């Protein structure tokens, strides 16, 4: 799959200004920064990853164009993909189990963007049957990864960020047991520290008593900055509307008297998402993105690289420095 050639920035003027002010991104220096990171990857015997511009920009933007931070993030991300292949490798959106998770509307990318240009993902944590033997934590994570990775292949999401709605309607002790404490810790830690995405907030809706246990787990691994981006709405959708426009939401989350644009019913919208994600274009991209040919091999890592982790981080490093 050729994703490298003919890169053309797709950011609108507002996003370009935001990228410059918040991420230290200078359009005139963007390609040079990508080439520097790409050249570095090519020289690493222990690291094999995608080299296309959009992929490398994702790490540079998360690192606010610090080459050293981007390198570290890239190594960590690639390493973790290999350590937990059942979560992250060879994701095929035509797998029956993944299609089943999409069909029930467990994880859905909502249409469009919010008023600040951010993508929104809806995760309905109580939507699945925890007694279903066809489902496992790995299947749910793989489905979510497919959704996230395609969204993050879009430049606006890498710059403006992503908001997540976590709907706990129907979430029971059985759902909690299905995941288990250790898996909840691992997924939370991965999202916060190792996943190259600009998370701009997580909104929890319709939480029950069991959520207090989950929140206590989150507090052990989340930074204060991430906890500041946690928003609890109880059963009040009005406060959610202050962040997520009604036009993006399924009808189940809208007032009865609302007649404006919306995502349609969860059932109908899930059918649309399934069609999108099983189409050749998106399916092939996700297979390529999650390929097991992308590897991090610690035993091949140069000794000088092992000793450089304590060095300070600089915003930019030119290829000849």
Automatic annotation (TrEMBL):
One term under GO cellular component: membrane
SUPFAM superfamilies: CRAL/TRIO domain, CRAL/TRIO N-terminal domain
Molecular function terms, GO-annotated: phosphatidylinositol bisphosphate binding
InterPro entries, alphabetized: CRAL-TRIO_dom, CRAL-TRIO_dom_sf, CRAL/TRIO_N_dom_sf
SMART domains: SEC14
Name of the protein in its database record: Uncharacterized protein
Origin species: Owenia fusiformis (Polychaete worm)
């Amino acid at each position: 799959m050729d994703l490298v050639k003919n890169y053309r920035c797709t950011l609108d003027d507002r996003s370009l200004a935001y990228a410059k002010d918040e991420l230290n991104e200078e359009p005139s220096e963007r390609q040079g920064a990508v080439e520097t990171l790409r050249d570095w990857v090519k020289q690493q015997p222990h690291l094999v990853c995608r080299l296309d511009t959009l992929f490398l920009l994702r790490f540079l933007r998360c690192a606010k164009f610090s080459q050293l931070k981007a390198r570290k993030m890239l190594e960590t991300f690639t390493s973790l993909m290999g350590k937990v292949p059942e979560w992250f490798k060879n994701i095929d959106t035509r797998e029956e189990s993944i299609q089943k998770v999409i069909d029930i509307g467990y994880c859905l990318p909502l249409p469009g963007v919010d008023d600040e240009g951010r993508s929104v993902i809806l995760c309905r944590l109580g939507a699945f049957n925890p007694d279903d033997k066809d489902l496992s934590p790995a299947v749910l994570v793989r489905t979510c990864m497919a959704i996230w990775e395609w969204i993050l292949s879009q430049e606006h999401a890498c710059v403006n960020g992503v908001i997540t709605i976590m709907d706990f309607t129907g979430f029971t002790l059985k759902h909690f047991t299905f995941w288990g404490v250790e898996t909840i810790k691992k997924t939370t830690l991965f999202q916060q520290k190792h996943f190259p995405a600009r998370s701009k907030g997580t909104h929890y809706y319709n939480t029950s008593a069991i959520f207090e246990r989950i929140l206590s787990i989150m507090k052990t691994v989340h930074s204060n900055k991430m906890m500041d981006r946690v928003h609890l709405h109880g059963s009040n959708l009005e406060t959610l509307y202050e962040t997520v426009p009604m036009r993006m939401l399924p009808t189940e989350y809208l007032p009865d008297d609302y007649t404006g644009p919306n995502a349609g019913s969860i059932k109908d919208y899930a059918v649309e998402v399934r069609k999108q994600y099983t189409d050749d274009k998106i399916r092939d991209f996700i297979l390529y993105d999650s390929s097991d040919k992308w590897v991090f091999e610690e035993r091949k890592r140069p000794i000088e690289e092992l000793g450089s982790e304590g060095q300070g981080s600089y915003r930019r490093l030119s290829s000849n420095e």
